[in-house]
TrEMBL record:
Recorded superkingdom: Bacteria
Record-annotated GHMP kinase N-terminal domain positions: 116-174
Lineage summary: Bacteria, Pseudomonadati, Pseudomonadota, Gammaproteobacteria, Salinisphaerales
Alphabetical list of PANTHER family matching this protein: MEVALONATE KINASE
This protein's pathway: Isoprenoid biosynthesis; isopentenyl diphosphate biosynthesis via mevalonate pathway; isopentenyl diphosphate from (R)-mevalonate: step 1/3
Keyword Ribonucleoprotein among UniProt keywords: no
GO molecular function: kinase activity
Source species: Salinisphaera dokdonensis CL-ES53
Protein's name according to its UniProt entry: Phosphomevalonate kinase
Keywords from the UniProt entry: ATP-binding, Cytoplasm, Kinase, Lipid biosynthesis, Lipid metabolism, Magnesium, Nucleotide-binding, Transferase
InterPro entries documented for this protein: GHMP_kinase_C_sf (IPR036554), GHMP_kinase_N_dom (IPR006204), Mev_gal_kin (IPR006205), Ribosomal_Su5_D2-typ_SF (IPR020568), Ribsml_uS5_D2-typ_fold_subgr (IPR014721)
Coiled coil (UniProt feature): none
């Protein structure tokens, strides 16, 4: 394998389409300028190892054959799920077992004050690690092939859950419309629309929240189907709504209302008391608040038109304990940052 390969991939934010995307509706997502950094290096000692400081893992010895690694305590096994799935997918792509490798994963950008922000760190890890391992194995995968493999691995790590939208965003970057198991469509951000990410809690488990909604679907299939149908109906209009800021603001407000209805029925914890308070605060200043992604304690979104209302919204948020996360939207997708040269290479 190449002596050392470094790769990175961005985080993501769901803008519109949460939950409905799991049932085939399109979702609107953006990549953000927080990146996971992965380094893979040939192991001269012939043994696999993993260092991931943000997971509390330091030079964990995985043995000479990673597919036959030792069994660890349950908490470590949980942390290794994405690594195992990606390594397996990379071996399948290469058609042979991978050489023993030292792997370092840095996801520090995806947390603040020790709390995860809900920017899709595991999806970004899947994208960057898959790109690094396949590149080190001598493969030159296209962006669609990278997305397909990374999505498959990430989904396996989450026991089949997840739409793949977060991984697709990590691979392709930019602003995209994504429908499950299809290539995303690149979109342009409207100049008059401002979006802010706001901390709303201390993090939430996407599989747990999705699992509660699935339990609701099993318990009350007809009501669940109506709730998802409403979300899907709105999600179908997202790409068109971007053409007019006022249309998009109306859509965001309607989508949040539909998420609240779903959560009222499911009792999943998607929307919390703080979300409702922020929604009222932002609405009074001329903007729209909605949860992002699975919801819970992850970051929320504020949308507002540029101009006086933007200033009013920022002042209203500053007067509370709501914290705006400094993020830029439309970040570049997965890339090889170093493979024996100093130049970053954008995957095609």
């Amino acid at each position: 394998m190449t002596t050392a390969v470094e790769a990175s991939a961005p985080g993501k934010l769901f803008l519109i389409g949460e939950y409905a995307v799991l049932d085939g509706a399109p979702a609107l997502l953006t990549a953000v300028d927080r990146r996971v950094h992965v380094r893979v290096e040939s192991a001269r000692d012939g043994r696999w190892s993993l260092t991931a400081p943000n997971l509390g893992i330091d030079a964990l010895d995985l043995g000479a054959v990673a597919s036959e690694r030792p069994v660890f305590a349950a908490d470590i096994e949980h942390k290794l799920a994405v690594f195992d799935a990606v390594r397996q997918e990379a071996e399948t792509a290469s058609g042979a077992p991978l050489d023993a490798t030292h792997v370092m994963i840095d996801s520090a950008d995806f947390a603040r004050d020790g709390h995860k922000l809900g920017l899709g760190s595991s999806a970004a890890v899947a994208a960057a690690l898959y790109a690094a391992l396949t590149h080190a194995a001598g493969l030159s995968l296209t962006r669609p092939a990278l997305a397909e493999g990374a999505i498959r691995a990430h989904r396996r790590a989450q026991n089949g859950a997840g739409s793949g939208g977060d991984v697709a965003t990590a691979v392709y970057g930019g602003l995209i419309s994504y429908t499950r198991d299809t290539d995303p469509v690149a979109l342009k951000w409207p100049r008059d629309l401002v979006a802010l990410a706001v901390i709303t809690g201390t993090g939430a488990s996407t599989p747990d929240l999705v699992g509660r909604v699935r339990d609701y679907a099993a318990r009350e299939p007809d009501t669940h189907a109506r709730d998802i149908a409403r979300l899907a109906e709105l999600a179908e209009t997202a790409a068109r709504a971007l053409a007019e800021t006022s249309d998009f603001l109306d859509l965001a407000a309607a989508y949040f209302a539909a998420l609240c209805r779903l959560d009222d029925h499911a009792q999943a914890g998607i929307v919390c008391t703080q979300h409702h308070a922020l929604a009222d605060l932002v609405a009074n200043a001329g903007g729209v608040f909605k949860t992002s992604g699975a919801g819970g304690g992850d970051v929320g979104l504020v949308f507002v038109a540029r101009g006086p209302n933007e200033q009013a919204v920022r002042q209203a948020l500053a007067a509370t304990d709501a914290q705006i996360v400094d993020l830029s939207f439309g970040a570049a997708g997965v890339r090889i940052d170093n493979a024996g040269t100093m130049a970053a290479t954008q995957v095609r």
